[in-house]
Amino acid sequence: MECKVKTTPNYQHLKFEKIGEGFVFIEGPVWNPREKNLTFSDIYGNIMRRWSPERGVEVIRDPSGKSNGNALDHQGRLITCEHISRTLTRTEHDGSITTLASHYDGKHLNSPNDVIVKSDGSIYFTDPRSGIESDKAGIIRKPDLDFCGVYRLEPETKELTLLVEFPKPNGLAFSPDESLLYINDTKMSHIRVFDVKTDGTLTNDRLFTDVISELGAEADKDMAGKPDGMKVDVEGNVYCSGPGPAIYVYNPDATLQGVIASPNGDRTANFAWGDDDWKTLYVCASTELYRVRMNIPGIPSMPV
Questions:
Q1: What's the pLDDT tens digit per position in 180-225?
Q2: Can you tell me the distance from the alpha carbon of 285 to that of 263, in angstroms, rounded to the nearest whole number?
Q3: pLDDT tens, residue by residue, 143-169
Q4: Distance from first CA to last CA of the chain, Å, rounded?
Q5: What's the per-residue H, E or C state across the chain?
Q6: Cβ-Cβ contacts under 8 Å for 233 (sequence gap 6 or more)
Q7: Burial class (CB in 10 A: 0-12, 13-18, 19+), 252
Q8: Spatial contact of 19 and 279, defined as CB atoms under 8 Å apart
Q9: How would you class 14 by CB atoms within 10 Å of its CB: exposed for 0-12, middle for 13-18, buried for 19 or more?
């Protein structure tokens, strides 16, 4: 399949290595620096897997509740967005699963999608309707909430705060000093950025870039995706998957730095930094899993 989104000169040196294949549609990768492995979700396959250099790909949860985004808390416990149960969960060290969030204001969440953990331990996640609008991604159901939100969860008290409403919030990432929170919107095809207040809430909403929507028109219409997974490197550059089979890289001032074309020409839904120096990018390209070495390290997924 021809990929109409081309790698730009900044990233022509990249050499991808395929480390897994035969999946249905993979998402939510997160690197565990203590165990030195990568956990990722196969949403449509309803399976969660783990890859390590020694053991390759293994199934760790089947069924997975059509899990999507994953993160790690400071104890190395897996935080997961589950579409079928419409919950945010935590996998304890003994393997048991704790529900962290399922309702807001007495109403069931839509379908938690992507999640990150701040240095103070608070958890931020997006809650679009992806998992209740598609039987592939979840189970079709009527929403209880009349909006899609972005939330902050205090894990000890389980206090859930609605931070902002979006048409369809998806990927999210902090700047290196956590003073900024980037949130992309799949429906609107753009990235917004907020200042993070000392209490963890958000202020000063503004557009970071809508270049994504412009580039989407140039992508193969059969392949075109929307803004999805998002990460930041230690220099503050913002990486966002979609539209089309690519990852778009923006400088902190929102200038497009370059485009990393998908290694297999298929949709790149999400990706994660990993390895000891955090310079390896693990890429979920629909049915295949890749890794590639980068020049700039990413922000670690958890303290070591």
A1: 999 999 999 899 999 999 999 999 999 999 876 666 555 444 445 5
A2: 8
A3: 999 999 999 999 889 899 999 999 999
A4: 40
A5: CCCCCCCCHHHCCCCCEEEEECCCCEEEEEEECCCCEEEEEECCCCEEEEEECCCEEEEEECCCCCEEEEEECCCCCEEEEECCCCEEEEECCCCCEEEEECEECCEECCCCCCEEECCCCCEEEEECCHHHCCCCCCCCCCCCCCCEEEEEEECCCCEEEEEEEECCEEEEEECCCCCEEEEEECCCCEEEEEEECCCCCEEEEEEEECHHHHHHCCCCCCCCCCCCCEEEECCCCEEEECCCCEEEEECCCCCEEEEEECCCCCCCCEEEEECCCCCEEEEEECCEEEEEECCCCECCCCCC
A6: 239, 273, 294, 296, 297, 298, 299
A7: middle
A8: no
A9: middle
From residue 19, alpha-carbon distances to 197, 198, 283, 288, 300 in Å are 40, 41, 10, 8, 21
Single-letter residue type at 8: T
Q: What is the pLDDT of residues 46-78, one digit of tens each?
A: 999 999 999 999 999 999 999 999 999 999 999
Our measurement of the distance from residue 56's CA atom to the centroid of its chain's CA atoms, rounded to an integer in Å, reads 22
Per DSSP bridges, beta strands 230-232 and 238-241 are: antiparallel
Half-sphere exposure of 208 (CA within 13 A, CB side): 29
Burial 281-291 (b: 16+ CB within 10 A, else e): bbbbbbbbbbb
